[in-house]
């Protein structure tokens, strides 16, 4: 799809369809007023009669309006201006794009002048490219050309880069596990790095053995697809600047191992590598934006399967940093992969770490499906990550990390165990487990089990993978 900017008035643009945006209980301005004037007051009349709604993300159509060149005018409500929040622009334009994409169209115009929030232009491109037009099941027909009413070409390019990065994550997470496994993910990362401008190093199972990654290797040893550690380096900052470390859980399929999941619980487990995909998508975005920062991404890739050599309950594993781990549940495997991956990150000299993982069902119980849980050992880093998420309209909530929870992962036969004493506070005990492997490095853990994958579509985005947290991480990096 070609993306262009335009200064042509909404009523005059030569397009198959256009989208305009209106606030609730506010007079029409800009492009909406242009359409109302061209149609001799028809838009105002439809709003007064209730045929066109200004409620948040409500969609209404004016078909073949007299006085307007486009045959379809899509009107998207923005709700009350006093209630606007970051992220509204992207959701509103994503809603418009998704609605219009149900029909093949040559050119679609998006008129952004009502979206008076600072991130509007870039966010709207993300809304179109990375949300509204992404085709999970090939039911949407992309436009040949999308025109945006702005002169800010830099913001348009930024939005396209972020939308493409988000789409990379969505593509990878939506792929079936028969196609995406540790080695194929590593190949994808090598290709993305070559195209985007960052270096990629891949550790195979022999290198992981040499590096003493006993916890990581245990998870993947029953699979026909051996584990891989993918290390991605982008050095755009000063040579003496400590890099930001991004760490992602990459379990390409999680059967639960010997602590086997139910069929229902296993159905969406192709998405258990969303953390690793998010790291790769973020690296692509940072590199293409040429940000002046040093970043190293680490993706711990394994497949948790069942076989005669599966790791077992009661096993004691020795992690890379020397700590021993008693296995209480083989379905608590992501934290084992991350344990060694975090230790590798620390040894690479990163100055701070943000890890992302679809780690616990407990986080969904606590926070629902749209909010990521945040845990940390550093209040300032946590505040910065939360601020970045808020600026992008993505949702995180900090959970407490009291020492009380550390007591729950102590083992009588090893240093720690991979499960808490009970089901209560399961997200936090998982976070406390990970904290054992970051040493003194400032660290934030994001449990994205809820927002990374959705069984149902929203008005602005299809069901399946969401690509969440890419924008937040890029915003933080900037």
Please describe what this structure looks like.
There is one protein chain. The chain has 478 residues and is of the alpha/beta class. It has two domains: 2-151, 3-Layer(aba) Sandwich (Leucine Aminopeptidase, subunit E, domain 1); 175-477, Aminopeptidase. The chain has helices at 30-38, 42-49, 88-100, 120-132, 153-174, 182-196, 205-210, 214-220, 263-266, 274-289, 334-347, 361-367, 379-392, 403-407, 426-435, 470-477; strands at residues 2-5, 17-24, 59-63, 72-80, 107-110, 145-148, 199-203, 228-235, 244-254, 294-304, 316-318, 324-326, 352-357, 372-376, 396-398, 416-417, 443-447, 453-454, 464-465. The strands form four sheets. It has an eight-stranded mixed β-sheet, with helices on both faces. A six-stranded mixed β-sheet has the order 1-6-5-2-4-3, with helices on one face. A three-stranded mixed β-sheet has the order 11-12-16. A hairpin with a 5-residue loop joins strand 11 and strand 12 (324-326).
User: What does the radius of gyration come to?
Assistant: 24 Å
CATH architectural grouping of the largest domain: 3-Layer(aba) Sandwich
Strand order of the largest sheet: 7-8-10-9-13-17-14-15
End-to-end distance: 27 Å
Mean pLDDT: 94
Report the biggest beta sheet as strand number plus sense, adding barrel if it closes.
8 strands, mixed
